[in-house]
Write a structure and sequence with these properties.
With 367 residues, this protein is an alpha/beta fold. The protein is built from 18 helices and 12 strands. A 6-stranded parallel sheet has the order 2-1-3-4-5-6, sandwiched between helices. The longest helix has 20 residues. The N and C termini lie close together (6 Å).
Length: 367
């Protein structure tokens, strides 16, 4: 790779922002432009616009934000054309990334288009693998088993391990529950749906004499203002913890109630007992169930091919059901069994002890 290369990097949500910052720090001497959040800005990136504009998931949720997303896609393509990068590196946010790359390719740039995070074709069907192969020049996948799905269609695919495992380790602590983490996600659409459910759960547990517990919510820049406002009048007010300190929070957590997504994998790696919940537009949930080819949505459940974390999705995501699962996890024997099962996945998360960011950076520089 020639010196003084230019990379236009795109992250559309918090997990991608964290990984993007690590990649930036691994690539010294590289000029960056692009889109990122607080972590990538701390690494020196000047973001084109806030990633909160991209943090949306679900067919109908995306449809409601279509005008903003279309404007941001056009702005991104224009910025790429102006920057003239050697590589466009997108991290997750596949819907946005694909549309940007398709438009950018029409400009006949000399750039190569790389993407981090393989779409879960093993859950949604192989057609997406074929489409990805037509759009991108290189793909960085988290797991070895994902590689053949894409190389089959001629897309160079490099397994790098899961980046959330970088530096994360299981936490050993006593078997007494003191702190409960409430994790409503990083997208505003998620938070708006889950926060009222969490509030009613906290009210229930307090009514049942649960004042012995302390509640915490990790917050990100995309939702901080909303969460602060909404929790101000909770009868038992949760402490709000910046996302950058979330691992300190998790280390002290007895039970977590978390939105489905990357955070459930973080909790699994740290061996934190958890309940996974998710609410979406009912029609989005219905369509997802029609095409989903896996029984679970939590990554640890999928990898181990069994239910480790209970999943309360759609209409099942109620305060009453959360309370049932919480009371089950209050039993030390149940928690110990769950932690033992989480440890069965320890060797799956990493690849040779090297961080995903290092492996991605090394691969970029050698191409």
């Amino acid at each position: 790779m020639k010196k003084n290369i230019k990379i236009f990097i795109i992250a559309g949500e918090v997990s991608g922002d964290v990984l993007g910052a690590k990649i930036i720090r691994e690539l010294s001497g590289v000029r960056f432009a692009g889109i990122g959040g607080e972590h990538m800005r701390a690494a020196g990136l000047k973001s084109l616009f806030p990633i909160s504009d991209l943090a949306v998931m679900g067919f109908f949720e995306v449809l409601a934000r279509a005008k903003t997303l279309t404007r941001r896609i056009n702005e991104t393509v224009l910025a790429i054309e102006k920057f003239q990068p050697d590589i466009v590196l997108s991290i997750d946010a596949p819907g946005f990334a694909k549309r940007v790359v398709k438009k950018a390719r029409k400009a006949r740039l000399s750039a190569k288009f790389y993407h981090v995070v393989a779409p879960q074709v093993w859950a949604w069907g192989e057609k997406r693998a074929k489409k990805f192969a037509k759009i991108f020049d290189r793909l960085y996948a988290f797991f070895d088993f994902e590689v053949p799905y894409f190389t089959k269609y001629g897309l160079e695919t490099v397994p790098v391990g899961h980046p959330i495992a970088d530096g994360l380790k299981p936490v050993k602590k006593d078997n007494i529950i003191k702190n409960i983490a409430l994790i409503p996600g990083s997208r505003m659409s998620e938070v708006r749906k889950l926060l009222p459910i969490f509030r009613r759960f906290v009210e229930q547990i307090s009514f049942d004499g649960g004042q012995k517990y302390k509640f915490y919510i990790p917050i990100v820049e995309t939702t901080e203002k909303y969460i602060r406002k909404e929790t101000a009048d909770w009868p038992v007010r949760p402490a709000l913890v910046p996302a950058m300190r979330r691992y300190d929070l998790f280390a002290k957590t007895g039970i977590a109630i978390a939105a489905s997504g990357t955070v459930s994998a973080e909790l699994a790696i740290m061996h934190i007992p958890a309940i996974v919940v998710y609410k979406m537009n009912p029609l989005t949930m219905f369509l997802a169930r029609l095409v989903l080819k896996t029984e679970w949505v939590s990554l640890v459940n999928i990898l181990l091919k069994k239910k480790v974390y209970s999943e309360l999705l759609g209409g099942d995501a109620t305060p009453e059901n959360i309370m049932i699962e919480f009371q089950r996890l209050e039993n030390p024997v149940v928690r110990k069994k769950m932690i033992s099962e989480l440890s069965d996945a320890d060797k799956i998360w990493t690849r040779g002890g090297k961080s995903a960011a290092k492996l991605i950076a090394f691969d970029i520089m050698k191409v």
